Amino acid sequence: MDGWTFTQGWAKTFALQTGSLHWDDPSRTLYIGFDTGRVVRLRISEENPMHYQELTELGVHTLRVNGILANADTGSFTSISDDGTLKVTDNATGSVVTELRPSQGGLKSLIAFSHRNCMGISDAKGNLHLFTKSGSPIEHIVTTTVESRSEIKGLALS
User: 116 phi and psi, to 5 degrees?
Assistant: First the structure.
């Protein structure tokens, strides 16, 4: 098995279905987005990764959370949802500091292009939206549409 060994450290059960997970290494925080639009944050102990602190659960969206990106520089996270909104939430206060609606459809996938300091967001209408990743407020760069206008469910880097 090429030297890899996996051992379960801990598990946490939720009564809801999750649509998105994001690990932020600088803050050692796992972000979990749910079908209800809520976001749970688990801060993992640096001294003992078997322990975690559950931060305040946030009702960020009204429908399924499909993507989350943390920004250690600003102390915030960006999330997208089937409700069609992109929201930037302050980690310390839990307040939404920016809310955008890039298109008329639900937002389906969120990916960071770290080398370009921007992020890509796909939607249910066949659009790919590029936004700045840092700064306040974030800014729209460009939108491009696939010819078929079909839903783009996932984005990946290679």
Answer: -115, 0
Helix or strand (DSSP H, E) at 42: strand 38-44
Q: Tell me the C-alpha distance between 87 and 85, whole Å.
A: 6
What letter represents residue 86's amino acid? L
Could you tell me the two tokens for 143?
Answer: 């939108």
Domain that holds residue 113: 19-145
**Is 47 among the domain residues?**
yes
CATH number of the domain residue 92 falls in: 2.130.10.10
Q: Is residue 50 part of a domain?
A: yes
Counting the structural domains of the chain, the total is 1
Amino acid at position 66, single letter: N
128, 141 in Cβ contact below 8 A? no
E strands, 49-135, in order: 52-54, 58-59, 65-71, 76-81, 86-90, 96-100, 107-113, 118-123, 127-132
Q: Cα separation of 149 and 5, whole Å?
A: 43
- Is the pTM for the entire model greater than 0.70? yes
pLDDT block averages, 10 residues each, the chain of length 158: 78 83 94 96 93 94 96 91 96 94 93 88 94 81 91 85
